[in-house]
Amino acid sequence: QQLTRGKLAPEARIDLHGMTLAEAHPELIRFILNAQSAGLRLVLVITGKGNPKNDENASWMLSAHGVLKQMVPRWLNEPELAALIASVQPAHAKHGGGGALYVYLRKNR
Q: What's the pTM?
Protein backbone atom coordinates (compact mmCIF):
# COMPACT_ATOMS: atom_id res chain seq x y z
CA GLN A 1 0.00 0.00 0.00
CA GLN A 2 2.76 2.43 0.87
CA LEU A 3 4.39 1.73 -2.47
CA THR A 4 1.27 2.48 -4.53
CA ARG A 5 0.69 5.69 -2.57
CA GLY A 6 4.23 6.89 -3.24
CA LYS A 7 5.11 6.81 0.47
CA LEU A 8 8.25 4.70 0.02
CA ALA A 9 11.27 6.39 -1.51
CA PRO A 10 13.32 4.40 -4.02
CA GLU A 11 16.84 3.68 -2.78
CA ALA A 12 18.34 4.17 -6.25
CA ARG A 13 17.20 5.23 -9.70
CA ILE A 14 18.26 4.91 -13.30
CA ASP A 15 17.06 7.23 -16.05
CA LEU A 16 16.97 5.39 -19.38
CA HIS A 17 14.90 7.80 -21.41
CA GLY A 18 16.77 9.28 -24.31
CA MET A 19 18.93 6.17 -24.65
CA THR A 20 18.78 3.77 -27.57
CA LEU A 21 17.75 0.15 -27.00
CA ALA A 22 21.38 -0.92 -27.46
CA GLU A 23 22.50 1.53 -24.75
CA ALA A 24 19.61 1.01 -22.32
CA HIS A 25 19.57 -2.81 -22.14
CA PRO A 26 23.10 -3.33 -20.74
CA GLU A 27 22.70 -0.29 -18.47
CA LEU A 28 19.49 -1.75 -17.00
CA ILE A 29 21.12 -5.15 -16.43
CA ARG A 30 24.16 -3.55 -14.77
CA PHE A 31 21.96 -1.33 -12.60
CA ILE A 32 19.74 -4.17 -11.35
CA LEU A 33 22.70 -6.49 -10.68
CA ASN A 34 24.56 -3.76 -8.76
CA ALA A 35 21.46 -2.73 -6.78
CA GLN A 36 20.69 -6.30 -5.79
CA SER A 37 24.30 -7.06 -4.79
CA ALA A 38 24.32 -3.86 -2.69
CA GLY A 39 21.27 -5.12 -0.80
CA LEU A 40 18.88 -2.49 -2.12
CA ARG A 41 15.21 -3.45 -2.14
CA LEU A 42 13.31 -0.72 -4.02
CA VAL A 43 14.69 0.95 -7.13
CA LEU A 44 13.16 3.23 -9.73
CA VAL A 45 13.61 2.68 -13.46
CA ILE A 46 12.70 5.75 -15.54
CA THR A 47 11.74 4.87 -19.11
CA GLY A 48 9.93 8.02 -20.22
CA LYS A 49 6.45 7.88 -21.66
CA GLY A 50 7.25 8.10 -25.35
CA ASN A 51 5.88 10.93 -27.44
CA PRO A 52 2.07 10.92 -27.21
CA LYS A 53 1.59 13.29 -30.16
CA ASN A 54 -0.10 11.79 -33.17
CA ASP A 55 1.33 13.70 -36.12
CA GLU A 56 1.73 10.94 -38.72
CA ASN A 57 3.86 13.13 -41.00
CA ALA A 58 6.46 14.15 -38.41
CA SER A 59 9.95 12.75 -38.95
CA TRP A 60 10.06 11.24 -35.45
CA MET A 61 6.97 9.15 -36.27
CA LEU A 62 8.94 7.18 -38.87
CA SER A 63 10.54 5.19 -36.05
CA ALA A 64 8.77 3.58 -33.13
CA HIS A 65 8.34 5.78 -30.06
CA GLY A 66 7.85 4.78 -26.44
CA VAL A 67 10.03 1.75 -27.18
CA LEU A 68 11.79 1.76 -23.80
CA LYS A 69 8.44 1.86 -22.03
CA GLN A 70 7.50 -1.30 -23.94
CA MET A 71 10.85 -3.09 -23.72
CA VAL A 72 11.94 -2.52 -20.13
CA PRO A 73 9.20 -4.76 -18.63
CA ARG A 74 10.20 -7.49 -21.12
CA TRP A 75 13.85 -7.16 -20.16
CA LEU A 76 12.95 -7.36 -16.48
CA ASN A 77 11.18 -10.67 -17.20
CA GLU A 78 14.25 -12.22 -18.84
CA PRO A 79 15.69 -15.08 -16.74
CA GLU A 80 18.89 -13.19 -15.82
CA LEU A 81 16.92 -10.43 -14.06
CA ALA A 82 13.62 -12.13 -13.19
CA ALA A 83 15.35 -14.29 -10.56
CA LEU A 84 16.41 -11.10 -8.71
CA ILE A 85 13.05 -9.30 -8.86
CA ALA A 86 10.12 -9.77 -6.50
CA SER A 87 7.75 -7.40 -8.32
CA VAL A 88 7.46 -4.58 -10.83
CA GLN A 89 4.80 -1.87 -10.55
CA PRO A 90 4.06 1.46 -12.25
CA ALA A 91 5.51 4.34 -10.26
CA HIS A 92 3.48 6.88 -8.32
CA ALA A 93 3.01 10.24 -10.07
CA LYS A 94 5.61 11.93 -7.84
CA HIS A 95 8.22 9.38 -8.99
CA GLY A 96 7.40 9.57 -12.70
CA GLY A 97 3.98 7.94 -13.02
CA GLY A 98 3.48 6.18 -16.35
CA GLY A 99 7.05 6.92 -17.40
CA ALA A 100 8.68 4.97 -14.57
CA LEU A 101 8.57 1.62 -12.80
CA TYR A 102 9.19 0.55 -9.23
CA VAL A 103 11.32 -2.59 -9.16
CA TYR A 104 11.20 -4.41 -5.84
CA LEU A 105 14.24 -6.66 -5.51
CA ARG A 106 14.51 -9.94 -3.65
CA LYS A 107 16.74 -10.16 -0.57
CA ASN A 108 20.35 -11.24 -1.06
CA ARG A 109 21.03 -14.84 -0.15
A: 0.81
